[in-house]
Amino acid sequence: MRNLYLNPILLAALIMIFVQDAWAGGFRAVPAVACDFMAEQGLRTRGGYRAGGDTHGCTSQRRNLISGGHLNNSIRFLAQGDAEKVTRLALELQVNSRTGVQRTHRHLVEYARSLMMNALGIGMSEEIEAAILSAITGSWEAGDSQVTLERIVLNAPAYELRFRIQ
Predict the structure, then answer these.
(1) What is each CA distance from 29 to 12, 35, 73, 83, 102, in whole angstroms?
(2) N or C: where does the chain have the smaller number of CB atoms within 10 Å of the terminal CB?
(3) 31 upstream amide cis, omega within 30 of 0
(4) Residues 119, 108: Cα–Cα separation, whole Å
């Protein structure tokens, strides 16, 4: 008879844990799934989800998008978090060549659109697309998650656009 009372209590405790986690907001995914979000787009991660300093993560190799002689514009995908869950996804677009900059930004739009659909199950807003095409830093709500775009100047005229979901 005692087990009958234990089951509802355990169930209520589990529900509270799940609800509390949901209230925390922000992106969360199982590493084995998150590390494959961009595999179909040619940004397959390598080496598995492993510790690196204070965090865990997986990273794809850089993929050249547009060649500008000895300088290339390239992109890579990253998933980071703790040992049990991924809490941040990123696409890092490195722009080293002025050749085809708008085409390079359009590539980032397509990759980011795919990442948002795979990770959040939602499409990209026109506002986010416009920010990427113009390389303008910004932050937007996307469901329970935050999407950010950051422009980091490396060495003029080179810069990096970091698209993040967290």
Answers:
(1) 23, 9, 29, 11, 32
(2) N
(3) no
(4) 16
Look up residue 106 and give its amino acid: R
Query: What stretches in the chain show pLDDT beneath 50?
Result: 1-7, 9-23
Strands (E), the chain: 45-52, 55-60, 63-68, 71-81, 86-95, 138-142, 145-153, 159-165
**pLDDT for res 82:** 94
Tokens of 105: 């930004």
Work out whether strand 55-60 and strand 45-52 pair parallel, antiparallel, or are unpaired: antiparallel
Closest CA to 140 of 123, 160, 159: 123
Q: Which of 88, 65, 84 is nearest to 76 (CA)?
A: 65
Q: Which DSSP string corresponds to 51-90? A: EETTEEEEEEPPEEEEEETTEEEEEEEEEEE-SS-EEEEE
SS3 assignment, position 43: coil
Q: How far apart are CA 118 and CA 120, in angstroms?
A: 6
- The pTM (predicted TM-score) of the whole model is 0.82
Q: Residue 31 has what pLDDT?
A: 96
At 10-27, the pLDDT tens digits run 433 333 334 334 445 789
